[in-house]
Design a protein that fits this description.
With 153 residues, the chain is an alpha+beta fold. The protein has a single domain, classed as Jelly Rolls. 22% of the residues lie in helices and 39% in strands. Strands 1, 2, 4, 7 and 9 form a 5-stranded antiparallel beta sheet that branches. It has a 4-stranded antiparallel beta sheet with strand order 3-8-5-6, with no helix packed on it. The termini are far apart.
């Protein structure tokens, strides 16, 4: 009986520890992936930058508050075989698509100014053009969204 409890305990610890490790694989990916190549001075990294796990065919949506009187540069990155990243900037009230990088051959970053503080929804997905069918079916990868801002002069 003690042996069975010990085995259950080991299995539970193993399952939860492996979930933790997998969940942390993408932490700060926007600082480590290709996004770091887009760091621009005098822009400062905005605290609402994000990293997450994603699979081909999945979509992530984030509601981000952009503060007024600032200029922003938003860059997206993933691992090399999963490019391009498809992203849209959406007005959350009207649900109008304000920008879709598909129209610009999947540019990896966009810059814009905000006069008054407002919220936008950013929707992103990966296309995985260079990934094999097996990789697309079996794996999730990291995606990063680096948001930088500076005051408008």
């Amino acid at each position: 009986m003690k042996y069975i409890k010990f085995i259950k305990f080991i299995l539970i610890v193993f399952v939860f520890s492996s979930m933790n490790v997998n969940g942390q694989d993408c932490v700060d990916f926007y600082k480590l992936g290709d996004c770091k190549l887009d760091v621009q001075k005098p822009f400062e990294v905005f605290g609402q930058s994000r990293s997450d796990m994603i699979g081909v065919g999945h979509t992530l949506k984030y509601n981000i508050i952009f503060y007024g009187k600032k200029e922003y540069l938003v860059s997206f990155c993933t691992t090399k075989d999963y490019y391009p990243v498809h992203f849209k900037l959406i007005d959350p009230v009207s649900e109008d698509v304000l920008y879709d990088n598909k129209d610009d051959e999947y540019l990896e970053s966009v810059g814009f100014g905000v006069e008054k503080t407002r919220q936008f929804t950013i929707e992103m997905s990966i296309l995985g053009d260079k990934a094999t069918d097996q990789e697309i079916e079996d794996y999730f990868t990291c995606i990063g969204m680096l948001i930088q801002g500076k005051p408008i002069k």
